[in-house]
Amino acid sequence: MKYRRLGKTELKVSVIGVGTWQFGGEWGQQFSQSEVDAILDRAAELGINLIDTAECYGDHLSESFIGSYLQRRNREDWIIATKFGHHFHERFTRTDNFKADDVVRQLDDSLKALQTDYIDLYQFHSGPNEAFDNDELWSVLDKQIQAGKIRHLGTSIGSNTNVHQTDASTRVGSKVIQVVYNRLDQAPEKDVFPSCERQDLGVLARVPLASGYLSGKYKPDAVFGETDVRHRHDRESTILKLQEVQRIGLEEVPQGVDMAAWALAWCLKHPVVTSVIPGCKSPEQVSANASAAVLADVDHPQSSTAV
User: What is the CA radius of gyration of the chain?
Assistant: First the structure.
């Protein structure tokens, strides 16, 4: 495994993380604790130390799975990133709440679900600029840092072109940007990444497999079930994406190389990207994801082999 410095946090994170939206049950599979344990155990075996979750992946359900796991393992071995700003009601249904007093409640609920005293990275979760620009929110969050509940703040931008929130990171104390970035969606390279570089922000690339389209498992005629979030995607857009993926597989992915690993390595080759956080539904997928660390450019300016 390779590790990189997560911007001004100075945390050393594995270049491959574990995204955990799937644990909330919106990706066509309901998980048991034993299945989550097996996934995270495999991640630990392979040197992965970063878990990304959120309050609304289920009603703190993903966090609860992770918390139960952490109770039976060494908490210090993991860097836990979670998010705030949404309330889960039922599958695919959320309401926003970025009010300062409610965010403190959300933080306490996340700490309880995760069964931990502190969160390594607490992220503003895809909220509007109006909510982001509320100084009271960031003042309250700074007090939570002083209280020891949070180590560092980050921003998961909802739009991968939201340079407003990215540019304001240093002012509000946010040290990490999480953004959609993959071979099919390179928009952050234009404005967001240069801003991250100027401010020395860590960058977490989410959806690095383009919602699984870049996994190489689906042909253009693939149909997703109603319990899978991809069922909600525009059908014509899905077909076009999968046709493009088919072309990429034929023209860009080296023969004999797993497409998913290639796609993750493609993200990691950008000098601004610290880590990718793909989802995974099995220990085998964790192993496949981890293989991308070898494919990625080892000359990345922040890469090392030690935490």
Answer: 18
57 is catalytic: yes
Domains defined along the chain, listed by start: 3-304 (3.20.20.100)
Strand ranges for the chain from DSSP E: 3-5, 12-14, 18-19, 50-52, 79-84, 86-90, 93-96, 119-125, 150-156, 174-180, 202-206, 275-276, 303-304
Question: Which residue in 3, 57, 122, 181 is the catalytic one?
Answer: 57
pLDDT on residue 93: 67
Stated pTM of the model: 0.90
Find, among 69, 7, 50, 65, the residue nearest to 199 by Cα: 7
The pLDDT, as a whole number, for residue 302 is: 63
What is the token pair recorded at 77? 């071995």
List, for residues 246-255, the tens digit of each pLDDT value: 899 889 999 9
Burial of 152 (0-12, 13-18, 19+ CB in 10 A): buried
Quote the pLDDT of residue 231.
62
